[in-house]
What we know:
By secondary structure, this protein is mainly alpha-helical. The termini are far apart. The longest helix is centred in the last third of the chain and has 25 residues, at 147-171. It is flat, with a radius of gyration of 18 Å. Helices cover 78% and strands 0% of the residues.
Amino acid sequence: RGGVGAEIPNARRALVRGDLEDAERWSCVAVGRYPEEAATHTGLVKLFLLRREPAVATHFAERAVQKHPESLELLALLGDARALAGSLDEARAALTRAAKIDATDAAKVSGLARRYLAFADVALDGRRYTEAERFYRRAAALRPDDVTPTIGLARGQSVLAAILGEAAVKLDPRSPEAQLGLGDVRLRFGDR
């Protein structure tokens, strides 16, 4: 198995800094230099999911799954991209394939959805909002008639919105924009 140089660590550092453009640049360099490494494709797909670009994430996930059909993580990310795009049937197909279960086995699909809900709740409690959102979205794709995953998504977004609003006010307590933003969040989601 080959190795990936500094590109992936550089992309991760850029993500931690919040520099999505630099993360994209490093991720693209990694895919170009190491096209046979599944990890390079995984990072690129995750980046476009984070940027909420479902069409681009789906495009790269489909290409990556063609190159690495054995990668269950890439299959799951393809499901994430399709769910974000609103293609729930296609998302469900990718997610069940990634979990190695039959998509027509209602009990197993329901069990997988429950597992994703549990993972999402743990991630939300740990303030890992992106991870929680991904697991709630997976559960919603698997059980589109169940309101629980959708409520979980909303709950995670409201908590994150409140935290970010409060952080903005702490950064600049005199900023009318920060005060207004926090007020809008509290009005929309309720005062926490």
